[in-house]
Amino acid sequence: MAILLGLGVFLWGLHVLEVTPGRLIDGIGQLGKVFMLMMPPAVTEHVWEYIRAIGETLAMAFLGTLVASVIAIPLAMMGARNIMPLGPVRFLVRRSSDVVRGIDSLVWAIFFVSVVGLGPFAGILAIAVNDIGVLTKLYAEAMENTDREQVKGVRATGADSAQTIGFGVLPQVMPVFLGNSLYFLESNLRSATILGVVGAGGIGFFLMDRMMISAWREVALIVIMVLITVACIDALSRMLRTRLIGSSKE
């Protein structure tokens, strides 16, 4: 019964969204035509501008992730049950983070572009605000899952609340914090590319510009450059996370 219900909902969704076999076939055909227009990628005199824009995109992702990671730590402390005894404070922090992360970074970018103007600063703010909401939740949950015996041991030495957090809680969760931040850096690099489309700077601006004038061979070059950059950052982040998790288990 559940399978039939799910199938019915799926078919109803296809009907409402006007998804038909004919449109799918036409779309695949158009995609093939665009792909052929992108081959071979064109290396033009603009390549150095693209490299500079990719550097700008990297800076947006790094600074946005860094700001979010730093701000999320105290917010997570205020949202963790084993650290913040005041229920209303925890509720306010948790629900605020729900609201913030419920809005996509692209929407935040459009908002900040209208507030601070075009450029990477709007992209940094959009990434940071969205990540603060997510990281606050993840960090708070990590703090709540710490080993209580270790915390009790630190408290038994006569440590006050701040010392208990500093020596009993944070050493347990810092590998988790850093691992999450590195993962978000990978994700934010891809997000920063899209944010440039709405005026937040970076390589996304050039990508959208070349698509608008149908310079598909240059689009292919930009896409390849972005993919190489993302692959390098992914590999570096994976290596750092592996070393971090390994050192935390020793």
Roughly how much helix do the residues carry, as a percent range?
Answer: over 70%
> Could you give the count of β-strands?
0
End-to-end Cα distance, whole Å, is 51 Å
Report mean pLDDT, rounded to a whole number: 81
Count of helical stretches:
10
Strand proportion: under 5%
Could you tell me the radius of gyration in angstroms?
23 Å
Order of helices and strands: HHHHHHHHHH
**Helix vs. strand class:** mainly alpha
Show unreliable segments.
Answer: none
Strand count, sense and barrel status of the largest sheet are: none
Oligomer: single chain
CA-based shape: globular
Structure characterization notes:
The protein is mainly alpha-helical and 250 residues long. 82% of the residues lie in helices and 0% in strands. The chain is built from 10 helices and no strands. It has helices at residues 2-16, 21-37, 47-79, 87-101, 105-116, 120-144, 148-156, 161-195, 203-212, 216-249. Helix 6 runs antiparallel to helix 8 (161-195) and helix 9 (203-212) packs antiparallel against helix 10 (216-249). The longest helix is centred in the last third of the chain and has 35 residues, at 161-195.
In summary, what is this structure?
Helices cover 82% and strands 0% of the residues. With 250 residues, the protein is an all-alpha fold.
Structural key phrases:
82% helix, 0% strand, 10 helices, 250 residues, mainly alpha
In terms of topology, how is this protein built?
Blueprint: H1 2-16, H2 21-37, H3 47-79, H4 87-101, H5 105-116, H6 120-144, H7 148-156, H8 161-195, H9 203-212, H10 216-249
